[in-house]
Each structure stands twice: as C-alpha cells, then as structure tokens.
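Aggregate trends can hide what the representation actually does to any particular protein. In the encoding step, the backbone of a single protein was reduced to a row of integers, each denoting a local shape. The record that follows shows the chain in one-letter code together with its fold in token form.

***
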Amino acid sequence: MRTSPPAPADPATLADRLGVDLDAELLERALTHRSYAYEHGGLPHNERLEFLGDSVLGVIVTESLFRTHPDLSEGRLAKLRAAVVNMRALAGVARDLKLGKYLRLGRGEEATGGRDKSSILADCVEALIGAVYLDRGFVTAGLVVHTLFDDLMESSARLGAGLDWKTSLQELVAQLSVGIPEYVIAESGPDHAKTFEARVRIGSDTYGHGIGRSKKEAEQQAAETAYREIDEAARLEALPVTVPDTSEPVGQATSSDD
C-alpha cells in the first residue's frame, strides 16, 4: 500500500524562529518547491521569491561587509561576500533553522531526500528573505539577514586560504611544482535551475569534488577539497595522491569563473 509523505511542520513556528510576523500565504509560498506545486495543479511556488531574495540578501551582506571592513579592497570584499552567499553556506543556515521539515515537496523529491538537498535548502532561504522583504520591508529583511548571517560573515573575515580556494590551490601547486589545476565540469538540470559538478585535474591525477549552482561555486568547492588533499599529502611527503574519479562526470576541462 502506498503511503503518503509526512506533512510539513507548521510554518508559524518557523516565523517565530525568524522573529517576524509574516503573511501566512506568502510564507507558505516561500516553502513550496516547484515539484509540489506541479503535483497540485500548478500552485504558486517559491522560485520568484528566491529570485528576489537573492538580490536582497546580496545587497544586505554587501553593505554590511562594506561598513564593517572599511580598509578592504573591492576584490577582497567580493571574496568575502562569495564566502557568505553561496549554496553551501545558505544550506548550512537552512539546516540550523531545521528548514527541511517545513518544505512542501513533491513525491519525487521526498523519495530522493529533498528535505536535506543543499540546492533546495539554499533556494528556500533566499525565498524566505524575499518573502520577508515583500511583507515587512527592507529594514526587517535586514534584521533577519543579520540574525542568520552575522556569525558567518564574522567567521569568513578570519579565513585564510578558504577565502579564495582556487587562488590558494594555484599558489600551493606552484610551490610544490606539481602542475597547473584544470577544472572538469559537468552540468545537469533545466536551464533555469542548473547544477554544476567540478573536479580538479592536475597532470594525470584527479582531486576534489564540488557541486554548486554556478561553475564558479562548484570550482571553489572542488578547489577546497583538492587543496586539503594535496596539502595533507605534501605534509606527509607522499605526493602525488590519486583520487579515483568514480562518478566519471562528463565535461570539459576549464578554468572558467562563469
């Protein structure tokens, strides 16, 4: 007998956690994935709110970093922002909120672990920010963003190699004279919601693995794992370390920052 998926948690408790009184219909839309909407006759879903929230989040984080770090260059500020506003960071915020239990998902996403899928969680955080902005305005949206992201902004400012993993990896392999990093990219999904997968190739060896909503984000994640692998191996004087590419992503080597 086919069982029904579990009912999402009461969205009102999420609004309480955010510390804001949100319009119930708007909040529900922010939590509605397109898979659920399509299965229920084309209900409104959260992609438009996500689009709006992405911009609102970007402005608030950028202004905060600009004011907090008056001596930093434009390039350094851009790297700081990228360390805060990316799929992995947003998904981490979502998991801290236990956002997955509030999502309205279609059966397919339920069956494949959609409640803990980083891309879905990250999109939902942005949709929530968009909903707060629409319902309560920019000032309240700013308060919510600061509540959710201030710790992350502070910790990102203390990053060394992690502020720009691609640059750090390039510097590391140059010091070790082991070759030049190339990024092998595979992409999947529809044009409006693509997912990119990246691995790092250095000579005949493959390192790292990264997934993101842009090539740049996937490459940064892959560069991070590659950096850690190569740095550890170098410390143990055991280079090269070959990591089998079991997933065999289909793509072309690239160093693009798209």
Observations:
- Residues 241-250 have pLDDT under 50 and may be disordered.
- The radius of gyration is 20 Å.
- The first strand starts at residue 182 and ends at 188.
